[in-house]
Structures are given as C-alpha cells and as structure tokens.
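Tokens for chain A. Residues wanted.
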C-alpha cells in the first residue's frame, strides 16, 4: 500500500500582496502600530513590530505598552483568520478571496501578559484552531527579540 503525502497549500503572490496591503496599509491602526507581515501561510501567520516612541507606555520609557501588545495580538488573530478563509476558498480567484474579509470582527479576546514588553522589536505569531461557518477560534503569541514568549492570547472572530 502506498501512502499519499499531501502537498502543503501555498498562496499565490497576488493573494499575499493583497492581504499585506489590506493588513499593513488599509487597516490604519495596524499601519500606526507598524505591523509588518513576515510570512503568510494557511496554518500560521507571522508579523513583526519594531519599537518606536509612539508605542511606549507612559509609565516606563523602554517598555511597549500593554494596549499595543493586545492590539497587535488581536490584529494577528484576524490575519490568521484571513489566511484560513483564503485557504478554504482556493477555488476562487485571489481577488474574490480578498473580498471575503469585509465582515471579519473580534467577538472575544483574552491576553495573558507573561513578561514586560522590553526590546527593540517583537515577533507575533497566530494560528486558527477552528474555522467554522460563522466563528473562528485563534491562538496568538508575542515574542521578544531574544525569542522569549512575552504574551499569549486566544480570541474568537465572527466570519460571516
């Protein structure tokens, strides 16, 4: 008996470019945060935030504000859902799939702050645990420049 190995699904360059444009430029808050997509795959998305003065909390000069961490993790959960929706509808053109994101919204978000957000840059990762017809569940992580986990989150998003 031969075993069939599934080929990992890859997005077209035009879909990736479209998602990056939506995520980094058209969602103004993500632009202000400086969120930049590093990789976009159906099973995991990765982005980066470089430290800048606007992101610093009022109480500590060199720490990224907890609200920025929370907003970044929420945005990453949404990006993971975008990737999962895009993967689910590979029979459509990239342009058709990009129009599916208009009704995406956060239902619930929980963030656990594990360590102070100190560093020159940060990496954020997210994955979809379940993509239903109306609700998606995600898990997100926020890492410091040394690769240490600083915050973890879970969220639910409306996808209909």
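Reply:
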């Amino acid at each position: 008996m031969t075993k069939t190995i599934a080929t990992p699904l890859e997005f077209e360059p035009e879909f990736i470019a479209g998602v990056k444009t939506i995520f980094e430029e058209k969602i103004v808050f993500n632009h202000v945060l400086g969120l930049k997509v590093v990789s976009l795959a159906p099973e995991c998305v990765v982005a980066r935030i470089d430290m800048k003065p606007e992101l610093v909390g009022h109480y500590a000069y060199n720490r990224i504000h907890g609200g920025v961490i929370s907003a970044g993790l929420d945005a990453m959960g949404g990006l993971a859902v975008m990737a999962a929706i895009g993967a689910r509808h590979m029979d459509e053109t990239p342009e058709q799939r990009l129009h599916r994101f208009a009704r995406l919204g956060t239902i619930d978000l929980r963030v656990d702050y594990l360590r102070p957000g100190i560093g020159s840059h940060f990496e954020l990762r997210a994955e979809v645990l379940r993509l239903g017809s109306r609700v998606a569940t995600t898990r997100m992580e926020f890492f410091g420049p040394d690769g240490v986990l600083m915050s973890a989150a879970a969220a639910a998003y409306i996808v209909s």
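Helices lie at 13-26, 28-33, 66-88, 94-98. Residues 1-7 have pLDDT under 50 and may be disordered.
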